[in-house]
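Researcher: We're teaching a course module on how sequence relates to structure. For the next exercise, students receive a sequence and then see the predicted structure as tokens, so they can try to spot secondary structure elements on their own. Here is the exercise chain.
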Amino acid sequence: MLTDANLRHTPLTVLVAARYRAAMTTIRPARPADLPRLRTVCALAYDDNPLMRWVLPDDALRVAACAAWLGPSLERYVAAGHVDVLTADDEVVAVAAWRLPGTAVASSGAGAGPGAGTGAGAPPPPRPAAVLGALVGDERATQVLGALAGSTALAPASAGPYLNYLAVLPTQQGRGSGGRLLRHGLETLAGVVGTPWLATTDPRNVPFYERHGFTTAGTHRLGDDGPRLAVLHLDAGGTPRGPSGA
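Model: And here is the predicted structure for the students to work with:
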């Protein structure tokens, strides 16, 4: 226990870690009311992501632009996908969004089908592709979306749940939040037909996913000057391999 007597001799990193452990952390389904926070978590977590740096190169505007681009997609995931959040003291600090086979959920690179609104009678949110066009121009948006679509050949033969977003606030990274959400999602969706899979442009993420039972099915270069996208599938019978620092 940290007492007044030893507080002044305790390193700041230890104090922060102790406070985080003391916080009540919970995993629960995302709710529509969480959407502003989900956008913020994703935008901050992906600020240094190679894909986002390629698509949105302006460092000063990337966080805001990323929130704008991903917002409509997150709305659709909350409405029709499977989204879990991890909260610390009731504040969302991490999010995992899965697209389920056969659903009309749209990712940040495609439109949505009928019924993708956020409630009965509610108008659907803007199409993510249209938002990207407003941010970078229609020609550039078409190039980006075409490049992303080129990775579809690396999907599993029987595609199951697709992890489109796994994001942890930068101030909370390295404490196991991402690993907890990933394991929770894999356990919750274990009965869904097909192979769970995902894609990432950040090579630092690959070892993390490998520790949780995924293997790289292949890679795909995005355009002539973009990052390489790695597509990973969960091994047959693959299971999480214990705690992770992400």
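Model: If you want an answer key for the exercise: DSSP finds nine helices and seven strands in the chain. The longest helix spans residues 62-80.
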